[in-house]
Amino acid sequence: xxxxxxxxxxxxxxKKSVKKTVLLALGANLSSFFGPPDVTICLAMKKMAKxxxxxxxxxxxxxxxxxxxxxxxxxxxxxxSCTSQxxxxxxxxxxxxxxxxxxxxxxQRWGARSLDIDLLAVGADILPDEMTFRHWLEMPQPDxxxxxxxxxxxxxxxxxxxxxxxxxxxxxxxNWRHPxxxxxxxxxxxxxxxxxxxxxxxxxxxxxxxx
Length: 211
Known about the structure:
Blueprint: E1 20-28, H1 37-47, E2 54-58, E3 62-64, E4 75-84, H2 88-101, E5 116-122, H3 130-137, H4 141-144, H5 163-172, H6 185-191, H7 195-198, E6 201-202
Antiparallel strand pairs: 1-4, 1-5, 2-4, 3-4, 3-6
Helix pairs in contact: 5-6
């Protein structure tokens, strides 16, 4: 689900902007050097405070079947809501540095991984523009699986379809409203069929929210 490394000419590095809400989704289904997926995700969340993110609110951990079905072990998923004055590209680069720290190797699209951090949204930004966003929003799934965008696409064009994103996200940003679809996270979650949420279960421990 990750949006890989981009050269986005619409975003400038190093220029501080107004503080905006940042939404992130985390997932892992392979162990890292630091431990199993739940441990890796908790440790990754703790590194975010040193990556230019503030006011960090984190969800519980959830276990979810791998997507696409049969593509690997079950995932551990979580979500983060925070704020930042960094540009979207700077946030993406910082999250990719955290992924690399925890052993992420970029290979098969939508393949198993030790850590995946997806930048879901930065405020109400639509990047690189609404026409390009809608192109990716409406892309058929077979094309999604083999095509990588040249630019960072925000909001993440698949976030509204995925229970493993929306279930954790609803705990930390239920009222965030999609700037194109016009729906809140809670409303997008409510639009999903029951089958899309039935297999998503919270994990009792560890609790990454514990101080």
